[in-house]
Amino acid sequence: MPRVLTARAVADLVAPALAAESSGPAYGRLTEALRHLIADGRLPEGSRLPSERDLPGPLGLSRTTVTRAYTALRAQGYLHTRRGSGSVVQVPDVPGGRIDHLLTPSALSDGAIDLTCTAAGAPGGTSEAYGQALEELGAYLPGTGYYPGGVPVLREVVAERFTARGLATTPDQVIVAPGALAGVAIAARALLAPRGRVLVETPTYPNAIATLEGAGARTVAHPIEHAHDDWDVAGLGRTLRQSGARVAYLIPDFHNPTGALMPAGQRAEIGRMLRAAGVVPIIDESIVDLPLDGQVVPEPLGRHVPDAITVGSVSKSLWGGLRVGWLRVPRGRAADMAASRLKLDLGVPVLEQLVAARMLQAAPEILPQQQARLRAGRDVLLAGLREHLPDWRVRVPSGGMALWCALPRPGSTALATAARAYDVALAAGPNFAAGGGLDGWVRLPYVLGHDQLEQVAPRLAQAWADVLAGRVSAGRDDRRGPQPVERRIIA
Questions:
Q1: Which of 48, 183, 193, 413 could be joined to 177 by an S-S link, Cβ 3.0–4.6 Å?
Q2: Best CA proximity match to 405, nearest among 462, 457, 471
Q3: Rg of the chain over CA atoms, in angstroms?
Q4: What is the pairing mode between strands 197-202 and 247-250?
């Protein structure tokens, strides 16, 4: 049964838009207000709107106005009305689908669950931010439109956010890039000599491994095991001394894929260690804005390493479609980073930068929506694992977008194969390994809707039973031994 939205609840949601000054007709303003709410997910797909008879009273509008608005929404593909079911919210089809074919695993059916991607839909307020940015865009049109360093307003907003978190930053220390991965590539190309060594945690974000190797780096794996402990500081020190690495890629804030948050004390200790070893860290803060349990995130690791390069983006916390990220660079490296940036392209689109600036300014209102959505998804997925796969071990993350699960025995690669039979796409543990291994682990994002997340554990339980029964290949050729991981983009 579709969720039924009360007339009062819908009226409260559209009231701010209807109260705003506008010269357009009332039905047009109501149409736009409802369309924005559907696009932002505040009126969920599959829910049933109040009838055209019930909604006018709470809105203070005529029935004719409501009817015209509903008619317009049906024509635009946002409502579907059937006798006996009322007007049900839907999202219009996108030609070619909502996920690019390079990211979508092949051979997935329409009802499949894709767990290879940790990215949420756009939060409430995204459509409004685009509208506001369009109004500001005219001032930029007489110029060339090239801003390889970033439009000033966005650089100012990012600098203010760093400063507020305890890392004093000025706009001239911010370089805007098309996403955090592009920031990692820019930093790596500026810092690393050909075949230079870079220390990488394992597990870590697969795309970062590919990006660093694409920049000509040789990765040195530093194993971390977050099932029971936080960072192995002593082990990190040994790896730094023995490896000869002069650059390190670290994710201290809701680490991907484990979700671990580096404690403040360890940040200071690791900072001293990096300084003493002369190692420049590239610190990835892509998920820093996603604490889920109300905790305060410690001050940036970059505060403890003056030479650090810190990268971030809006892709995980706000919306991946913006493709806006940044680097926070020390002044002594600004020229090298700027030169590396110019070898990439001539800048992120101006409109998206303006949207990102607007949304970052509104983050205190926007982020709680994302956090609440992710927190609820995390709890749904955890409940399913406890019921259907109780022997899988997982340390409940206090933030981030995924669970990092320890299997009772190695078999992640086989599980990813078996899961296809139950219409689930997985990224096996070895994808997250910088130095090989991790076939006993699997990452499970909780970014999907509850109806899909509730199906994850039952389907995986069937797939895991197939693995344990030996009905699935272990993903190796016994004549040649384990084969190297074919790295593909995993969002």
A1: 183
A2: 457
A3: 24
A4: parallel
How deeply is 387 buried, as exposed, middle or buried, from its count of CB atoms within 10 A (0-12, 13-18, 19+)? exposed
**Residue of 251, 303, 230, 235 whose CA lies nearest to 272:** 303
Please give the single-letter amino acid code of residue 62: S
> Is residue 477's pLDDT more than 50?
no
Rounded CA-CA distance 63/69 in Å is 10
Q: What pLDDT, in 10s, does the model give residues 1-57?
A: 557 788 888 888 888 878 776 667 888 888 888 887 887 667 777 788 888 888 888
CA 86 – CA 4 distance, rounded (Å): 10
* Dist CA 199 CA 209 (whole Å): 10
Q: Kindly state the DSSP code that residue 477 receives in the 8-state scheme.
A: B
pLDDT, tens digit, 9 for 90 and up, residues 72-125:
888 888 888 877 678 888 877 655 444 554 455 555 666 789 999 888 888 888
In this predicted model, what pLDDT tens digit does every residue of 108-167 receive, in sequence order? 666 789 999 888 888 888 888 999 999 999 999 999 999 999 999 999 999 999 999 999
pLDDT value at position 224?
83
- What residue has token string 């307020």? 125
Q: Which helix (H) or strand (E) holds 361?
A: helix 350-361
How far, in Å, CA of 62 to CA of 64, rounded? Answer: 5
**E strands of 116-227, at which residues?**
174-177, 197-202, 218-223
Is the preceding peptide bond at 291 cis, omega within 30 degrees of 0? Answer: no
Q: Are strands 441-445 and 402-406 parallel, antiparallel or unpaired?
A: antiparallel
Alpha-carbon distance of 328 to 393, in angstroms, equals 37
Task: Compute CA 104 distance to the chain's CA centroid, rounded to the nearest angstrom.
Answer: 16
B/e letters for 182-198, b = 16+ CB within 10 Å, e = fewer, are bbbbbbbbbbbeeebbb
Residue 388 confidence (pLDDT): 98
Give the whole-angstrom CA distance, residue 229 versus residue 443. 18
Coil, strand or helix: which one is 406? Answer: strand
- DSSP, collapsed to helix, strand or coil, labels residue 355 as helix
Query: Which tokens sit at 451?
Result: 């109806």
